[in-house]
């Protein structure tokens, strides 16, 4: 980053922090209809800030829900176009009594800013806006073409984003998707992800006797629906943590030697045990911990219930039992095929005396891009410059549904360059964001825009 | 039953029905503190009715909860003393919208009386009162000595009965306990029970990571508490329905040939499948259905829960999982020993990555008396006289905790001569009672009092 940019950042830093505080003060809770006007107010604040920062074609675009804020600056002829995504809505603040400060009156203490949305994602949306503003202030133009698409519904499942993208394919056309809504590996270890796990979720219900039965009057005579559920779910894994659904691993891209080495290096089992409060970790035998999260599929029970849940005992044989299951999928697994294999397995292993209902719910394709993709290289270089350490080419254990949206509809390769930390309490009380990563992140984002055209040449 | 008794019954029948309706109209819901005065009102009604019926020493005896109604008639020198037990409290009426009639405005239709408490147990308590009143009206004295002990807390676990019995050992001293709070095998098949299953109940909780985890961020790295629960619970039965807890069956009294034959005769699997709405029955291999309910112990899951239970999916790895378990026990199993064996098994089979907490809850000894007990013979004769068919010497799959109380504290052999039917919706909306069994039951109760001194001579 040249002297002129560094000076501009320095000169405007206090103003930026003041503006960020203003933005964070707006309670843009998308899930709460009583905050509908606040969500719009945040959109308006953001649109206004982009306009003041020199962006063009600033618009608040309506959806059936909360609006999208769009802006662009498209004057870099023959240079790549970067579409920047983030969300200006935030999570609810319950339980409010667990907050040490007012969630919508941001406080800076020890170079950490506390408040709802600081790390997820208003703080990072604000960084994307200031990335452009800083360069425009210093240089009058940008090294790439840039578009902003900031949505107000990410915390409610991006309810209208698919529709919005479908309706604005031309407006959103770009070469690269830049997303600042993820986390770094640790305080001083930046990362850029090239793969995300997908998802296949389902709910299964077993129906035994037509009503709950008294276990004294009928116990021993009839299948207990919970016993059947335990037996059925017990067939899904072997005792080494492998999923035993026939064909489940058939399409899994094997770990390369390099990936395995990286995962081994990054697996700090002692630290993770300590973080989670467990004596031992557990998972698929034969893979280091990080590989089990990044590169191997899982089948997890997320919820299980049937029968009596109150205090003490109720001697009932339950009529029904329900389980919620999600598989995390990796390249090249197909969510629809996995759903079908799992349904087949469940039917084939159904214990006697119960009926099975399988309801397929959410699904998301796993995602990956070539590790030598030029945009990844630019991100890597930019992070190294800003953080003075090599970034790790990482994967993510979760899925980021909007990545699938933009990839599937616009063919965009996503650069997930986020500056939050897992420990920063997003979705929880006392959410916060380290300003040290605001500074270094802003540096990295600017450096990325400068390096990208070189790599994509 | 002689002519004089038959005439007395006939003459007083309409009055009896009118009185029963009055008694049933009092909403004596013991679990609901807003009905505390109603419970007392039911006790007063009953005490008054016993007094009017010629009983002596009628008292409302206080407990720390709802009172006990006591009465006696002790003028049959050198004859056995029968202690009659029943309860005048009733279950709540929720869900009220499922009732076709007002639960506390009893209606008679097609010789069936509808209302809360008709079969469980105010209707049957009323029969015990009228049994004595009818004989006293006809004869001026009774063929045995009789005591009544009607409690108001059976539906809340007889919370203060143990204490009450301890405090009134002399008052309650008797030779035989007569209980009318059970069911017949079917409309025209009376039964008298000589054995009850006992109970050993516990709750287990598994604790994995210290909080719920995101299945994308951590899935694959750490034990899923629900998987551990499924694995652990899966070790409790084999695939033939046997309990696999070491030593579980060691003390079980084997089925005699006669019992097996009776059970085979009484097992109507098609009817039971139809009643329960299942395609197939299930249970311990090698035993007919009725034997599995009456004479074999079980280990049942009554409740199981952990993780997300709402609509759709939440990709969480749950921190805790809980299971509620009860074992139905048969002679000569010891609930304390079974609890210890089960705790040992659970600890020995605990999957890695979770901690186990076992909380022992309710327990009840299994009960049995010799099938040739003279009081059983008297009951058998009385039922045959009233129902014109041989009564079946049966067992009960459930436990009747008050039987243990009276047996352990007063050494009483229980005669469980009940006239309800399993299909009469006790504890449910539209509870009802067949007046045909009111008539035949009252006949049987009177006949029992006459035959008992002959058998016990």
TrEMBL record, chains A, B:
Keyword Heme applies: no
Annotated GO MF terms: metal ion binding; peptidase activity
Pfam family, one: Peptidase_M20
InterPro entries in UniProt: Cyt/Met_Dipeptidase, Peptidase_M20, Peptidase_M20_dimer
Presence of the UniProt keyword Metal-binding in the record: yes
Coiled-coil blocks: none
Domain Peptidase M20 dimerisation: residue ranges: 194-353
Key words, A-Z: Hydrolase, Metal-binding, Protease
Gene Ontology BP terms: proteolysis
PANTHER family: BETA-ALA-HIS DIPEPTIDASE, SUCCINYL-DIAMINOPIMELATE DESUCCINYLASE
Descriptive protein name: Acetylornithine deacetylase/Succinyl-diaminopimelate desuccinylase
Gene source species: Sporolactobacillus nakayamae
């Amino acid at each position: 980053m040249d002297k002129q940019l560094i000076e501009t950042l320095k000169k405007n830093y206090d103003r930026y922090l003041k503006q960020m505080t203003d933005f964070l003060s707006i309670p843009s809770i998308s899930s709460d209809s009583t905050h509908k006007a606040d969500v719009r107010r945040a959109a308006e604040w953001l649109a206004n800030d982009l306009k003041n920062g020199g962006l063009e074609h600033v618009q608040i675009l309506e959806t059936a829900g909360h609006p999208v804020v769009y802006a662009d600056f498209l004057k870099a002829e023959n240079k790549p176009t970067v579409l920047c995504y983030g969300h200006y809505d935030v999570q609810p603040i319950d339980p409010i009594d667990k907050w040490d400060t007012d969630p919508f009156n941001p406080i800076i203490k020890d170079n950490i800013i506390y408040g709802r949305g600081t790390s997820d994602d208003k703080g990072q949306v604000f960084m994307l806006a200031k990335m452009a503003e800083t360069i425009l202030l210093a240089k009058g133009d940008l090294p790439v073409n840039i578009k902003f698409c900031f949505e107000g519904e990410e915390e409610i499942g991006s309810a209208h984003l698919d529709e919005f993208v479908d309706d604005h394919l031309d407006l959103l056309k770009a070469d690269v998707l830049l997303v600042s809504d993820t986390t770094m590996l640790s305080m001083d270890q930046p990362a850029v992800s090239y793969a995300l796990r997908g998802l296949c979720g389902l709910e299964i219900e077993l129906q035994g006797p037509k009503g709950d039965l008294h276990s004294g009057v009928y116990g021993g005579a009839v299948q207990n629906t919970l016993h059947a559920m335990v037996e059925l779910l017990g067939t899904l894994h072997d005792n080494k943590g492998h999923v035993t659904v026939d064909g489940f691993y058939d399409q899994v891209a094997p770990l390369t030697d390099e990936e395995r080495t990286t995962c081994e290096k990054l697996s700090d089992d002692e630290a993770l045990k300590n973080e989670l409060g467990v004596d031992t970790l557990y998972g698929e035998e034969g893979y280091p911990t990080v590989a089990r999260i990044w590169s191997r599929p899982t089948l997890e029970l997320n919820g299980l219930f049937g029968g009596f849940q109150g205090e003490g005992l109720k001697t009932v044989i339950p009529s029904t039992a329900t389980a919620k299951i999600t598989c995390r999928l990796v390249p090249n697994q197909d969510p629809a095929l996995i759903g079908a294999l799992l349904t087949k397995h469940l039917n084939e292993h159904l214990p006697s005396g119960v009926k099975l209902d399988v309801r397929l719910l959410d699904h998301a394709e796993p995602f990956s891009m070539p590790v030598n993709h030029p945009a990844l290289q630019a991100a890597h270089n930019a992070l190294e410059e800003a953080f003075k350490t090599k970034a790790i080419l990482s994967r993510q254990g979760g899925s980021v549904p909007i990545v699938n949206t933009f990839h599937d509809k616009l063919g965009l390769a996503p650069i997930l360059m986020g500056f939050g930390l897992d420990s920063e309490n997003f979705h929880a009380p006392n959410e916060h964001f380290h300003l040290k990563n605001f500074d270094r992140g802003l540096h990295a984002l600017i450096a990325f825009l400068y390096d990208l055209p070189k790599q994509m040449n």
